[in-house]
Design a protein that fits this description.
single chain, mainly beta, 7-stranded mixed beta sheet, 4-stranded antiparallel beta sheet, globular
Length: 130
């Protein structure tokens, strides 16, 4: 089990940017596929982006493609989600999640499915508003 901690959320105006961080202590995130998910009030949880541990492949939902970028910093044991051109509909609690060695990703066929993940962070609130 890996303990994940998200940070970097906040209030931003439409068109602005935020960078979310997903860190862990005691576990090397390089050994995990990492997914970013969000849940807006009254809506289902949505897979936003993910990165595999095998070859670093990245994936994005259609709603954020071209605006969000996921990346790893191995030295800091952190996965980032850079969010640009933010819209009010991006308002949600954002969570990161980990899949050890992308094992379930390989079975399910995508790292954007929440069923891939057992380990989740506590979430960070992102609010896009004037």
């Amino acid at each position: 089990q890996v303990q994940l901690v998200e940070s970097g959320g906040g209030l931003v105006q439409p068109g602005g940017s935020l960078r979310l961080s997903c860190g862990a202590s005691g576990s090397a995130l390089n050994n995990y596929a990492i997914g970013w998910f969000r849940r807006a009030p009254g809506k289902e949880r949505e897979g936003v982006s993910c990165i595999t541990n095998s070859d670093g492949s990245t994936y994005y939902s259609d709603s954020v493609k071209g605006r969000f970028t996921i990346s790893r910093d191995s030295a800091k044991n952190t996965v980032y989600l850079q969010m640009n051109s933010l819209k009010p509909e991006d308002t949600a609690v954002y969570y990161c999640a980990a899949d050890f060695f992308s094992l379930r990703t390989a079975v399910v066929g995508t790292c954007l499915a929440s069923t891939v993940y057992d380990d989740w962070g506590q979430g960070t609130q992102v609010t896009v508003s004037t």
